[in-house]
Amino acid sequence: MDIPLFKNLLKSSPEPPVSTEEPPAGPSEDLDWPSGYVRRVCPAHLNEANTLNENKWAWRSVGYRQRDGRQAETRICLGTIQCSNAACTRPVRPLTQSAPRRNQLAEPCHFCGSVLAHIDCSARCFRFSTLVHGQLYLVWEHDGLHHHPRPPVPRTLSIVERESVDRQIANSFGATAHQLRTGSALNPNSIPLHEISDVLANARSARYQIAQSQARQGIPTASTMRGGFTTLTSLADLKDKNGEPFLIDSSLSGAPYLMFRTGFMKEMLLESIKEWEEEDPRADGRHGLVTDGCHSFFRDGVIVATCVFNSKLAAWVPVLYTWIGGESANHFRPHFREISQLIVDSMGARFDQKYLLHVMDFSAAQQKAHDAEFVEAVMKSLGPLLASLDPAAVDAQRAAILSKVARIGCNMHFLTSVTRIRDTAALIPPDLIPRFMASIKVMMGNETTESQFDNVAASLSREFPRIRNWLKWWMQPWVMAMVFPAKSPVPSYVRDQVPSTSNPVEHQHHLLNHATTKDQDLIPGAMALLKHVQEREAQYRAIESVWNPPTKPTKTRQRKKKAEYVNDGRAPDTVARLALANSKKTPKSAISTEEVRPTVSTEVSYKWAHSNSCFYDTSMEVWYRALQRWSPDELGDLSSLVPTNSFLSFLVNHVNRRMELDSGNRAAPGYHRQVSQVLYLGQTQVRSFIVDRWKLAGPDDYFCAASWLHHAVRDSNTSVAAQARFGIQQLVRSRCSHNHITLGYNPASPPTLTNIELSVVSFLRELYPHVALTPQHYFAHYIPRNASGHPIQASSTQCAEVAELANTLVCRAPTSITDVQFSWPKLLSCCTLGQLPTLTEDSLYPASLTWPEVFQIDDPIDGVPVVYEYIGRVLHSANHYTAEVRIEDQYYMYNDMLNAVDGHDFVHLSTSSFGASVGNKATASYVYNRTSVKDTVRAYLYILADNLQLLIHLVAYYVDITFTCCH
């Protein structure tokens, strides 16, 4: 078959006849998807000759081949790539080059994760030139059938599609790209760009093609011009593309309203509920409904919008618009009623109250309307039996439902208000800003209890009397229930599944105003609403038909701070500028040149908090100094191994934030306030873990500085791989009499604290009488123990050989240990006071270890050692913990109570003072970082036997050892 392209096509030639019909007005099926034998001919001198081969199949050139005695450029069809999942079968356009195409096939399906399959094709096309009556013509021939699904269309437009785009832009001069995409431009006869090509449903592609068209036609951009509607039609006749009415409900009496929804909007609502029900991870944190009113779209009245997140679009989409003529609760109720009733009716027995949750601002009218319709919807879900109950019982049921109403307020509204209060010096003195913001953080914390919230709120009211009226407004019960987790009836796991801000729907208002105009009259505005929704539907359908991949949601970008205003003759006349002026560095000439030995560090850390925070302040400080020396990859690796709600996840985030501030400009305005906030919040979070989650101690109790670390590492069922970063892991290999090999970790989880057994140290003194004992001697004779504290060498086990096919035990013979592989942790905590023998007389265990800056654990097999570097130690005396820490290459004594007296946290120590006795303080634990890449040492039978003999000798000469926590 011959396909005509242009009016002056060849009329007579020795080739197959060519039709002289006019070119089609719009995109042609035959032009885009040729199949079978197709021949196109065009004079070579025309520019259009270069577009003879335009179509939407995926081709690859294989060079020049013989075609009817001529050299013809030959291309082969690449077929299509398709998901092998029968429930998905989404096609993917093959890449032209072989290597990228192989990589493309190696990737899983982007939608369902299944394997991709390549469907090849035998179709060919040829391009060559020929002379007819002395005139040169270009010929394009297609041969073969395409027995495969059509691939997604390419990004480039065909010549017919480009001409259609040119006509739309030329006839709608001054229209914005968004208006051209929706068809809501100055020209009433304009058509949306997505109807020209599915490619143009993608906003970025549409903007690019519009710019190319304007450049081709020499049309200047006019993005500031606005268009409007002149079409007048009745609301009753306003229908979507499927012929369904856009206006679904209305009332012009009482509280007037007009409700608009298309079938697509209903589909999006139900799809979002299904995704939440199935816990689709693509929409995690974006479930629920977000509702807000827009005052700028219509000239009179308010347009109320509710939107949901759609994972296919990877964007928020509106599901209901309601124009209201006032802003009372009765005006808002129809909007909430329509959504709530639809959800209850569609879900049936699967209904859950959380699906009615709305995120919105703090309008009292919206809140009352939402609560009333929430109760009615839940009552309806209870079924007809409710009507048979006593009226008093029905009222009680309503009250119970109302007490658990699901709604969340916009955090951004609250934080914006907080910022205005904070920056008003007459309300919050600048030197008290850190305390004010720290209290706000506690009030907004997900782990804050109700009693803690009440105490902080009362403290704010006492300390800042001028903000009592502001605080009183936010302390209204219905407002507190929306913004503060401690007062919210919505469970924390549900709050984590929904947004914490109404920004998604406010962005929808912006898109609507940008695509049309503001201050619309009612009928033109309703038409603009419809076209706006249809444009969103076109985007969805294009993605659903695989013409366009969705744009992934981007992470929230931190707003860049404005550069500090350079003084150009203006005196510092605001609180912020006065603080900036006071923070300027003192000129060098004013600094004394007298050399003074530094005794106090500028480093800051956790401040002692009433009461008894020292036991976790000191351990946190020493661990921070250890993790500070880990590489970013090591911290990132640890973060990837732990649950997001675990203590270690919090610790990594806290350490990263502290390191970020430590490396910042300490003279910058607000630096010390930020540091104080981070330290205060970190300290509060640790206390919450210890007191509220693990319940190790009461709010004012004193506890062991080492014991709580065991709970910290294992919190939230943290993986053994993550725990191994903090404890010695023992992989035991055993063999039975049948030569079956058994491998297993013993204990299953590595202990966070390595207890230094003083009885073993005393016996080592007999082995090495003339040298200073160090951890290197101790770990050379390390006795591996199981979870019960018994030596592994002395424990008996049975073989656990399993039949490969039957998956049943086939051998239970006794086993003996052949070797143990020790995996040495990145952070090693050695406990000397936290775990003590029950018999503690000095005469019984007189020996002790010397703890050097660096020690190593030798590997008797390959001779390559595992090396550890000193980080710090925790000291204890008179019910108070302090710490010695290494910061860079200097040593400091940290005391969280010093700041309250001297205004600093660290006292510099001389190198000779490192590790020395400090008055009556006893060392509770030592912390070392592994600096070597090597982290494993294998101890074979002869080494274990040697240590076993040591153990037997020890038992013979010393009393049995049992361990107990000192606090």
Helicity, as a percent range: 25-40%
- Provide a count of the helices: 28
**For the CA atoms, what is the radius of gyration?**
37 Å
Shape descriptor: globular
Main sheet overview: 8 strands, mixed
Average pLDDT: 81
Give a count of the beta strands, DSSP E runs of length 2 or more: 32
Proportion of residues in β-strands: 15-25%
What would you call the structural class? alpha+beta
Which regions are unreliable across 5 or more consecutive residues at pLDDT < 50?
A: 1-27, 222-233, 585-601, 834-844, 958-967
What distance lies between the first and last C-alpha atoms, to the nearest angstrom? 92 Å
Oligomer: single chain
| Number of individual domains | 6
Folded structure, characterized:
GO terms for molecular function: DNA binding. With 967 residues, the protein is of the alpha+beta class. It is 34% helix and 19% strand. The protein is built from 28 helices and 32 strands. A hairpin with a 2-residue loop joins strand 27 (880-887) and strand 28. Helix 8 crosses helix 9.
